[in-house]
Amino acid sequence: MNPPSQRLADPLDEEDAVNADLSLLTRMAALVTGMPKAFVTLAETAHARGKEESFCARALEEEEMLVAEDVYADPRTRAIALRRRDATIVTYAGALIKTDDGRKLGTLCITDAVKRPLSETQLQLLRGLARQAMNLLSLRQAKLDLSAALAQMTRLATLDDLSGLLNRRAFLQEAERIRRLVARQQGGLCVAIVDIDHFKRVNDRHGHAAGDAVIKAVAHALRRGLRDSDVVGRIGGEEFAIVLPFTRAADALRRLQQLRVDVAALDVDGVRVTLSGGLTELVGARGAIDAALKHADTALYRAKASGRDRIELAACAEPLAA
Fold it and tell me: Torsion angle, CA of 87/92/97/100, rounded to 10 degrees?
């Protein structure tokens, strides 16, 4: 009953690629400055991730860079150094990673356990590497935003807004995928159409808001009553289609009868509804989904004509021809 998946960029893969590039930048920072240790700290974690990042949190208060040849002597870092008493940090330099609009993303930091002066050339190189880090972090965020946008577009393209079920196009695609899977394994597959009885009367008597609530309640009942492997979609106003893989007609009929009973027991703000349905079987899962839907629709019409609140089996199953 889940919507069909589409291959999107994996955010974890993107994260790994960016982290690898940042690791390369930190190694370069250590090489060009002669410092034994270099790392990147993001702004949101600078205040909470440990001893070294406390200096980075202080660096974020600067406009471009914080350089302290002796953290115990520099008035900007002395209190932090005395509080932390970290013997691995005496010299510290942190270049800000900033966007073009001045937003501070973090710092590219270098440290040494001994006092070490840094030349202007080394500091310029550190600033340049910080700008490259900014490009990497901005690219990561852009890719994450794109992945989120694509996921949202996929949801909008495949799901019916009101019921949360697959829309007609997505249902047909997923039903065909399931049919091919079942056919390869020579299993049984059934297709059904169910329809809310007298739905127009619900809208006329209780209003369209009540009609929408009924659609949602019935959709929920269908999802709850079907297996995870079953596929259900809203293919019309009050009409739903269901594919039951690896299921023969007798078992499918029992499942649909239970769904019909479940829906009849619903009380949607005082509104009670019933379902009628038509069911057909694709023997060996061979045949077309659209043809099966036509057979199920014919059986549905017979259920309506016979008094509604009932499930009818199509007179004949789909032939074995491919």
Answer: 160
Q: Partners of 39 in the beta sheet?
A: 109
Average pLDDT, the chain: 86
Q: Catalytic site residues?
A: 238
What strands lie across the sheet with 37-42, from one edge to the other? 37-42, 104-112, 91-98, 65-68
CA distance 226 to 243: 10
Q: Which domains does the chain have, with CATH numbers?
A: 11-155 (3.30.450.40), 168-313 (3.30.70.270)
- Taking phi over 0 as left and psi of -120 to 50 as alpha, with beta for the rest, 21 belongs to alpha
Instruction: Give the pLDDT confidence of 10-45 residue by residue, as tens digits.
Output: 544 556 766 788 888 899 999 999 999 999 888 876
Q: Which of 93, 96, 92 is nearest to 128 (CA)?
A: 96
- Residue 241's contacts (CB-CB under 8 Å, 6 or more residues apart) are 168, 171, 175, 191, 192, 193, 232, 233, 235, 293, 296
- pLDDT tens-place string over residues 232-259: 999 999 999 999 999 999 999 999 999 9
Strand arrangement, sheet containing 311-313 = 231-234, 239-245, 189-196, 275-282, 311-313
